[in-house]
Design a protein that fits this description.
alpha+beta, 5 strands, about 35% strand, elongated
């Protein structure tokens, strides 16, 4: 007979998304992040102080034509949307060894509204750590006009379903 702790663990396992619940081809659409002008400038001032990320006048003389968010800021906003999505889905994520093929396709401007679309392109159990799986996901970040502004391949580690 199982006690209360065992029942609680069993209920949590049913609601948690583990490696076994992920399949190649799975897709998701999530996020809603409005790009704030003051945050664009603050991020750039701290982490990417190039003139076209800091002020309209220098930006006007570049291919951006106006103040544009740093690509690294776009990555950070994407990470925030991804973490929130993972919490909502209760994914048993264990971190990431990195990303591949990062591309900034179009400028991101203050006032843009960003969202994410993902597709699982590879899923395999770790050979060295069989209690987890490795998942590759193609991530596309789109603006309010459904224009892709950034893409990358995310590599994630996810816990396998505990036995017992």
């Amino acid at each position: 007979m199982k006690g209360p702790a065992a029942h609680r663990r069993a209920a949590e396992q049913r609601t948690m998304e583990y490696f076994e619940d992920v399949a190649v081809g799975d897709t998701a659409r999530f996020g809603a992040c409005v790009v704030d002008r003051d945050e664009v400038i603050a991020f750039a001032r701290q982490y990417d102080p190039q003139p076209f990320h800091l002020s309209d006048d220098p930006a006007a003389k570049t291919p951006f034509k106006r103040l544009a968010a740093s690509g690294w800021h776009t990555c950070a906003m994407t990470m925030a949307m991804t973490v929130e999505h993972s919490r909502t889905r209760r994914q048993a994520l264990l971190g990431s060894p990195g990303i591949d093929e990062l591309r900034w396709l179009k400028p991101v401007y203050p006032g843009d509204k960003l969202r994410c679309e993902t597709k699982v392109i590879e899923a395999r159990r770790s050979r060295s750590r069989p209690a987890m799986g490795l998942i590759k996901t193609r991530v596309t970040v789109l603006n309010q006009d459904d224009v892709a502004v950034m893409t990358f391949i995310g590599n994630m580690m996810i816990q396998a379903r505990p036995s017992g």
